[in-house]
Amino acid sequence: MTTTLLQRPTAQLELLLWSRQLQKARFDEVAALRFLSNAIVSLRDAKTPELSPIGRYLIAHEGIYALCLGTIYLHGVLPVHHEGSRAMAIQLAFELLDMTIADLHRILHANRHLEDIADQAIAPMTNGEVRDLVALGDRALDQARLVYPDCFF
């Protein structure tokens, strides 16, 4: 017996498809697992103390974003790339993962912070901010294990 990881799109995802904020994606289970693998590896690498705090922060954020894209991709859709699509993908995924409102606010704040520092030559970043973001990513991965257990072998 074979199973597929593909989930039915929720009503909210269907509405965003209709409004062309999301697009249907040709689903491939290997690609779905690659999103998850990228998230796991990035969050692991973000814990490497030899890297600078800003480097670890960027890696952690990219890991969380990979998890978010993977979560949406499991429903056969991906965001249409335009301004604000990254924040929308994060918000949708955190809702699909049943993350807390507080965690949603934390990741959206981290996303805005990332946008603010993206064009700065020297971006201030503390180890505490990095630890908080990595912990948030770990919570999101734990929640993904509960919501999508077939993705974790």
> So what's the CATH class?
Mainly Alpha
The CATH homology group name? Nucleotidyltransferases  domain 2
What is the name of the CATH topology? Four Helix Bundle (Hemerythrin (Met), subunit A)
What fraction, in percent, of the residue positions are helical? 55-70%
- Overall residue-averaged pLDDT value: 91
Tally of extended strands? Answer: 2
Classify the secondary structure makeup into a structural class: mainly alpha
Quick structural summary:
By secondary structure, the chain is mainly α. The protein is built from six helices and two strands.
Structural overview:
The chain is mainly alpha-helical and 153 residues long. The chain has a single domain (11-151), classed as Four Helix Bundle (Hemerythrin (Met), subunit A). It is built from six helices and two strands. A two-stranded antiparallel sheet has the order 1-2.
Summary keywords:
153 residues; single chain; mainly alpha; Four Helix Bundle (Hemerythrin (Met), subunit A)
Helix-strand layout with pairing:
Layout: H1 11-18, E1 22-24, H2 29-45, H3 53-73, E2 77-79, H4 85-96, H5 101-117, H6 127-147
Antiparallel strand pairs: 1-2
Helix pairs in contact: 2-3, 3-4, 3-6, 4-5
